[in-house]
Amino acid sequence: MPGVREHVAQAGRSVTYDSYLRVAELTACQHPLSDEHDEMLFIIIHQATELWLKLSLHELSGARELLRDDALDPALKMLARVTRAQAQMIQSWDALATMTPSDYHRFRPFLGSSSGFQSGQYRLLEFMLGARSRRMIDAQPNAALARRLEQELARPSLYDEVLRLLCRRGFDIPRDSLERDHAADYRPAPEVESCWLRIYEEPEANWPLYELAEKLVDIENDLQRWRFAHLKTVERIIGFKKGTGGTSGAAYLESVLKQRFFPELLSVRTLVQ
After folding, report:
1. In terms of C-beta density within 10 A (0-12 exposed, 13-18 middle, 19 or more buried), how is residue 6 classed?
2. What percent of the chain stands above pLDDT 90?
3. CB 195 within 8 A of CB 166
4. What is the pLDDT, as a whole number, of residue 30?
5. Among 100, 109, 136, 135, which residue's Cα sits nearest to residue 121?
6. What angle is formed at CA 97 by the lines to CA 49 and CA 103, rounded to 5 degrees?
7. What angle do the packed helices 72-96 and 207-238 form, to 10 degrees?
8. What is the pLDDT of residue 266?
9. Burial (CB count <10 Å: 0-12, 13-18, 19+), residue 72
10. Residues with Cβ within 8 Å of residue 21, at least 6 apart in sequence
């Protein structure tokens, strides 16, 4: 009987680049609904974004589990990888912005009521970071993704696990912040801000937590950069028309720029001396 190593080597010889990555299936996923040239760009940009979102969710899930187990160093690596994925997502808007209003409006009627607003993975990313709304579950047309959002609503967010980690490491996190309803909006607490202030004013004594804080700020900053690039691309291509999914378009995208995921990590910067 062949051993495990021999079995793996034998199986490996039958693996090719195309078979491992399923290139044929991947490149067969683009099905334009019109004969317009630019629709292919539109589809590929959004499909690639969904893949980067999948990687981001994979890394955030892993980081959250590691934080729960007090394994901070490998969690930091995963959080750093999320920002690299976000960089790719931000740059994708530059490619989409090469499409002019007339290019887009030739195939826009074929999109029907479909909209990026319906991206379940994007909503899952928001939920995981702490911005949660049952309204977004009700608006999700994909039943499987709606179930994933419902399940996420019952879990502690990434920031919830960070605050629990701070508590285990001796910081005075209030009970209301630790035992809150995970489905409700997170409410900033001055006591949490004070804990972050201690970390920022004594970084050498709290370096791993200081680095964790900066990784979280990186993720929030890059998400807002992605949103801003989305807004400016929409303004460039459709101006201030309504979105295909019925949203207010640019006005809606501008409104979410005010959303905060880790509020005390921003407000504490005003206090640092």
Report:
1. exposed
2. 78
3. yes
4. 98
5. 136
6. 110
7. 10
8. 96
9. middle
10. none
pLDDT at position 8: 55
The pLDDT tens digits of the residues spanning 129-166 come to 999 888 889 888 889 989 999 999 999 999 999 999 99
Identify how many contiguous H helices and E strands the chain contains and give both numbers.
15, 0
| pLDDT for residue 10 is more than 80 | no
**Contact in structure between 231 and 257 (CB atoms under 8 Å):** yes
CB 180 within 8 A of CB 130: no
Long-range Cβ pairs for the range 221-227 (8 Å, 24+):
222/83, 222/86, 222/87, 222/90, 223/86, 223/125, 223/129, 223/261, 224/257, 225/86, 225/90, 226/86, 226/89, 226/90, 226/93, 227/253, 227/256, 227/257
Q: What residue type is 21 in one-letter code?
A: L
Closest CA to 162 of 65, 67, 33: 67
Q: CA gyration radius for the chain?
A: 22
pTM: 0.91
Which residue ranges form the domains of the chain, and what is each CATH number? 34-268 (1.20.58.480)
What pLDDT is recorded for position 240?
83
For range 261-270, the mean pLDDT:
97
